[in-house]
Amino acid sequence: MRRISTKLVLAVLAAVVLPFVAFMFFINYQMEVRLTEDVVRQSLQGLVQDLAGQIDRFVDERRQNVAQWSESAMIVFALDNYESHKGIVRADPERASWDADALDRWATTRELSVDLKRDWDFVIHQTRDFDRIVEVTGVYDLILLVAPDGRPVTCNSRLPDGQPIGREYLEFLFGYDFTAEPWFGRAIEGEASQLDHHASRFRAREYGPGELAHNYHIGFSTPVRNQRGEVIGVLFALVNWHHVQGLIESRVVKEYFRGLVTEDRDPSPYAWIWRSDADTIIGHPREDLYYESVSNHVGLPELTRAVLEDDDGAGSYPEYLFAGEWKNAAFKRTAEPEDGGFYWVVGLGIDNDDIYATSTELRNLLLGGTAIVLLMAILWTMVIARRTTEPIRELQRSTRRVAGGELDAQIDIRSRDELGELARDFNQMTAELKEQRGQLIKAEKDAAWREMAKQIAHDIKNPLTPIQLSLDLVERARREKNPGYDEILERTLDLIGRQVTNLREIASDFYEFTGGRRPEPQAIELGGLLDEVLRLHDAWAVDLGVDVRREGPGGMVYADPGKLRRVFGNLVSNALQAMPEGGELRVEVAPAAGSERIRVRIRDTGVGIPEEAREHLFEPYFTTRGEGTGLGLAIARRVIEELGGAIDLRSAEDGDGGTVVEVQLPTHRETA
Ligand code: ADP
Ligand code: MG
C-alpha cells in the first residue's frame, strides 16, 4: 500500500473487477434460472403436449377406421353370404369349403379354384379389401372379421411388409374359438372396445431384441350390424405398437433442443409412455424397460407420485437424478377412455447438462473474456501507474538532493500535464533558492564581519581610554612641573603595562577564537596542568579572599598544553570573577566512573548563572561582564570538543550556591 502505483492498481481492481465479477454472477444466475424455468420447462411442456396430441390422433384415427369399416356394406354383405354359404356347404359335402387352407392358397398364389370361386367370391373380395387397407395404412398387423359363432370369416392375407400371412398362423386363427375373448363378447353385445398395449396372442410374428416393440399391439373391436341394427359379426384390428413407439422416438424430440448443445453432441431429450397407472412403462427408447415399474424397478417413485397427484393431466416432474444425470421433465396424459383414449402418461425429459451446456459455454466465454480484459486492464494500469509515478519519484529524488544541500538539482520531466508543471515550478524554486542562499550567505558574512569589527573595536577601546587619560595626566604634570611627576609617571607606566597585557589577552582571545595556531598535542598530566593554572591565579585569589583547593588523583590526556592551559585558565578566571566577595574554589581531577574518561570539576561559590544567560553561555561574544569578550566559553567548548570531550555548565545544586563546570576528556591510553 506504500506506492501510488499499487494504490492505482488496487483502485482499478475495486472499481472494475469487483462490479464485473458481481455482474457475471448475476448474468450466470439469470441464465440458469431463465433457461430452466422459462425456456426449457415451457418447451418441454409444449413438446410433450404435442406428442400426446399426436398419439391421441393416431389412436383416434385407428378407432374411427375400424368403426367406419364395420359400417361398410361390403362387410355386411360378406357376413350375410358367409352364413348362407356355410349352410350350403354343410348340406352339400361336394362343395368346397372356406378355411385357413383356402385362404393360405389364395394368399400365396392369388388364385382360387373354380369351385371356390363359385361360392366364396364375396369373402375373397373382402380379403382383398383388408389387404389393401393393410398395405396403404401400414399400421395394421391384423384385420379380422369374426362370425357371431366365434369363427373367423376372413382376415388380411398379407402383412404390411407384403409377406403372405402364413399358413400355420391362419390355421391357428381359423381354429380359434373367439367367443372366449372378452372383446368379442362385448362386441356381440353391441359394444365397441379397445385393448391397451399388450402382447397379443393373435400376433403373426415374434420379433427379437431391437424390435421388441413389434411384439406389442393395441386392439380395436367393434360390432358389425345389418340394416336392421342387429349384430351380425365382429370386426377386430390389431395395430402394431412400433408405430406409437415411432412417435416418441421421432427426431423432432431431439432436434427441438438441438440449439441447446454444441454441434458435436446429440441432445439428450427422449420421450416415454407409461400406462394409465402412471407406473408401468409401455413406451421407451429402451425397449427392455417395457412393463417395468417406474417406482420399483427404476426407483423414481416421486415421478409416479407427481403424476398421480396432478389433476389436470399435464405438468412438470420434480427435478430428478437418473443414471447419474440430473434431469428436468414434463408430462401429459393422453385422452381419457370416455374420449376414446387410453389415458397414458407421455413424458419428455432432458439432462440438466444440456440445459446448462449453452449457459456454461457462454459463462466460460464470458469468464475467459473477462479474465483477458481484466488482465489487460491491470497490466495497462500498472504501465500507466509506472509512467505516472516515475516523475513523482524523480521529484522525490530531487527534493532529497535539495534537502541534502544540492541546490542546483534540476528535474528532467517533459510531460505536459500537472506533473510537468510541478517539475517546472520545482526547478524554478531551486534556482531561486540557490540565489537566495547566496545572498543570505553574503549578508551573514557581512553581518559577522561587522559584529566582529564592532566587538574588537569595543574591546580595544576599553583599555585604551585609561591609557589616554593617564597620558594626559602625565603630560599636564610635566607641563606644570608637578613635584609628584615621577610618581605619576611610574603609576602611569604601571597602568599602561597592565592595559597592554589586557590588550594582548584580548588579541590572543580573538586569535584563538579564529582557530589559533596549529595544535601540537602531547601527553599531559591533567592534575599537574591544573595546579600550574591555579598557581598563576594565586595572587588574585588571595586578593579576593577565595579559598582554593585542588583534589583528585589527576589523569593523562593527549592534547596541546598551551591550548588546554588557556581553556582552564579561562574557566578558573570565570570562577574567580563570580566571587568578588571571596568564597571557595574546588578543582577536582579524577577518572570518570565507568568510562574511559577523565573528569575535571571546577566548583565555585559565586553568584551563579543568571536564568536568562543559561542558554547563551557558549555563544561567542556573550558576556555579562563589562570588560569581558564573551569568547572564553566559546573557545573552551571548541577546544574540548575537538579533543573528543565535552563541557557543561550548571548551577551547583547543594549548599552555598555557585556554579559547577564539568569537563570530560578522553584518557590517554598509552601512558595511563
Ligand atoms: P567572559 O568571561 O568574557 O564574560 P565567558 O565566555 O568566559 O566570557 O563567559 C560568559 C559568561 O558566562 C560570563 O559573562 C558569565 O555571565 C557567565 N559565567 C561563566 N562562568 C561563570 C561562573 N563560574 N559563574 C557565574 N557565571 C559564569
Ligand atoms: Mg571568561
> CATH homologous superfamily of the largest domain?
PAS domain
The number of helices is: 17
Strand segment count: 18
Q: Strand count, sense and closure of the main sheet?
A: 6 strands, antiparallel
In short:
By secondary structure, the protein is an alpha+beta fold. It has 17 helices and 18 strands.
Supply the key terms:
52% helix; Helix Hairpins; five-stranded antiparallel sheet; six-stranded antiparallel sheet; Beta-Lactamase; binds magnesium ion; 672 residues; alpha+beta; 4 domains; binds adenosine-5'-diphosphate
Please explain how this structure is put together.
The protein is α+β, with helices and mostly antiparallel strands. It folds into four domains: 1-70 and 249-392, PAS domain (Beta-Lactamase); 73-227, Beta-Lactamase (2-Layer Sandwich), CATH 3.30.450; 407-516, Helix Hairpins; 518-666, Heat Shock Protein 90. The protein contains 17 helices and 18 strands. It has helices spanning 4-70, 73-91, 100-109, 114-137, 167-175, 182-188, 242-248, 251-255, 294-298, 301-309, 352-403, 418-479, 485-513, 526-536, 538-544, 561-577, 632-642, and strands spanning 140-146, 152-155, 193-198, 217-225, 231-240, 270-274, 281-283, 314-316, 320-322, 325-333, 345-351, 522-525, 546-551, 556-559, 583-591, 597-604, 646-651, 659-666. Strands 6, 7, 8, 9, 10 and 11 form a six-stranded antiparallel sheet that branches. β4 (217-225) and β5 form a beta hairpin. α1 (4-70) runs antiparallel to α11 (352-403) and α12 runs antiparallel to α13 (485-513). The longest helix has 67 residues, at 4-70. The mean pLDDT is 89. Adenosine-5'-diphosphate is lined by residues 570, 574-575, 578, 604, 606-609, 613, 617, 622-625, 628-630, 632-633, 659.
